[in-house]
């Protein structure tokens, strides 16, 4: 369970999925946090200015101005705010960008409320071991990373990303909907 200090924190939950947003806010309230919800950039900034939350959970991809823009704006508004980026479309490129813009941590959905609360407490960046040069990434994983990088460069605009990639928008949407490829390590004999 979270520490007692969580009972004094106010968390801004920003996600365009209204049901998910309400469920997460309710879970955080049951864990002693005051929760405020918003479903887009403009509403999130208005709530942040009105309530001055000390924490925020921000969805990466939302219609209009996306989560990365919101992270940067929240950081300008309150440099001490702890911000966790939560997304169903995780990639190394978007995680790095989120951290550069001031996010405390980056989690992929589904994430448990306790996991999110623990992420707020992270004070040092996570050091990831680079893969050995002999362990090449599978091609579909490299493709996923590239798609995510282009999408990040286009601020989440799928049509613009598809144009830059030279592919049809629907093809890109299908690839994104499949999610990050997972590769199970081979079983040892």
UniProtKB/TrEMBL annotation:
Swiss-Prot/TrEMBL keywords: Phosphoprotein, Two-component regulatory system
Domain Response regulatory: 10-124
Pfam families: HTH_8 (PF02954), Response_reg (PF00072)
SUPFAM superfamilies, sorted: CheY-like, Homeodomain-like
Record-linked InterPro entries: Bact_response_regulator, CheY-like_superfamily, Homeodomain-like_sf, HTH_Fis, Sig_transdc_resp-reg_receiver
Modified residues (4-aspartylphosphate): 59
Signal peptide positions (record): none
Protein known as: Response regulator
Source organism of the structure: Nannocystis bainbridge
């Amino acid at each position: 369970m979270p520490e007692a200090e969580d009972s004094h924190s106010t968390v801004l939950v920003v996600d365009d999925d209204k049901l998910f947003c309400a469920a997460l806010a309710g879970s955080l309230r049951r864990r002693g946090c005051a929760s405020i919800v918003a479903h887009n950039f403009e509403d999130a900034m208005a709530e942040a200015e009105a309530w001055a939350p000390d924490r925020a959970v921000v969805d990466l991809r939302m219609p209009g101005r996306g989560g990365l823009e919101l992270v940067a704006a929240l950081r300008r508004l309150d440099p001490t705010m702890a911000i966790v980026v939560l997304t169903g479309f995780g990639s190394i490129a978007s995680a790095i960008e989120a951290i550069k813009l001031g996010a405390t941590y980056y989690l992929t959905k589904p994430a448990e409320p306790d996991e999110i609360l623990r992420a707020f407490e992270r004070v040092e960046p996570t050091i990831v071991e680079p893969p050995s040069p002999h362990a090449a990434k599978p091609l579909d994983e490299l493709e996923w990373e590239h798609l995510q990088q282009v999408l990040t460069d286009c601020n989440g605009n799928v049509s613009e990303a598809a144009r830059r990639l030279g592919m049809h928008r629907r093809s890109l949407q299908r690839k994104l909907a499949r999610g990050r490829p997972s590769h199970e390590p081979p079983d040892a004999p």
